[in-house]
Each structure stands twice: as structure tokens, then as C-alpha cells.
Amino acid sequence: MKEYNGWTNYATWNVNLWLTNDESSYNYWMERARDSEVNELAVALEDEHKEAMPELDSSTYSDLLQHVLGSVNWHDIAKSLIEGASA
Description:
Helix content is 72%, strand content 0%. It has 5 helices and no strands. The protein has helices at 10-21, 23-34, 38-52, 60-71, 74-85. The protein is globular and about 45 Å long. InterPro entries: DUF7249. It holds the Pfam family DUF7249.
């Protein structure tokens, strides 16, 4: 995958967009970012998104969803959130 709007790829850009455009999500993750290291926050972001993923029967759609979530650069999102929280 190639870069998209300055992010690693479209999936990373899209997750960040949803995180930062939803007020409650933004506030939650900014609070978490204030007290976290990049790697710790990246793991939390990935874990919470995987836990929230809808249960799908085995199918093309479930495979695609898992693939796309697997391509998200959680580290880049965490780094951006931490930089924003410390600004």
C-alpha cells in the first residue's frame, strides 16, 4: 500500500480520521495519550479496535476487514495523538 494524505496508507488515515472527528472518541484517546508511551498507546488502540470489530461469519468480508485492520499503522496514530496531547 502507498501513502495516503501523509499517512502510511488509506486504512491508517481512515482510522485516524474517525478517531479525531468524533468528539467523544477524540477526548477519550487524547486523555489516554497524555499518560501513555507511543508503543503502549499503539497496542491499546489496536486492541480496542479489534475488540469492537463486529463478529462476522467466515467470508470474503471478514477476511477483508481483518486484512485492512491489520494494515493500520497503530504506531503512527499513537505518535500523532501523543504529539497533539502535548501541544
